[in-house]
Here is the input.
Amino acid sequence: MSWFKSPLKTFFLLFILVGIVLRFYNLNYDNLWFDEIASFWVSEPSINFSESISRNIQIEGSLFIYNFIVYFLNNFLGYDPINIRLYSAVFGTLSIIVFFFLCKNILSSYNACVVATSLFSLNIFLIRYSQEGRMYSFLVLVSLLSIFFIIKILNDKENNNVFDKKLIFYFIFQTTASLVSPFAII
Here is the structure.
């Protein structure tokens, strides 16, 4: 059977594509709001790294890891208000892909995986967070990666290696998520 002859697969691709387009659609429609301005100000590439940390402590209510990533990206891609939202849209798009692979490892039914991923990609809250220049879509991405690797570790019963690369990836993503927001520990 051809890929596009199955209506479920066709709708799945359509929903994923719509979810991705909605994350990038009208990114610069509104002006930056106060929290986005704070992230934009903290991640200014013309200041040195210690000044950026000082600004983060002074104004932000979150830890520095997300602003460090934005600071690093602004150094290479340019310091433009649209870029801070563009990074969030890319993180939101990557989270759709990670969610699909997470569903494939958790759910036994391919159809349930397709429906869950379609709902995830069309979730209005995740779309809106992907259009804001804040840490939320990045937090969703690293949290999903952390869950993905812990599921892989739990499913791999025959590997008794303590220092497995999946375990290392789990600790990296869980630590990153915890440094983005302390609520990720919960």
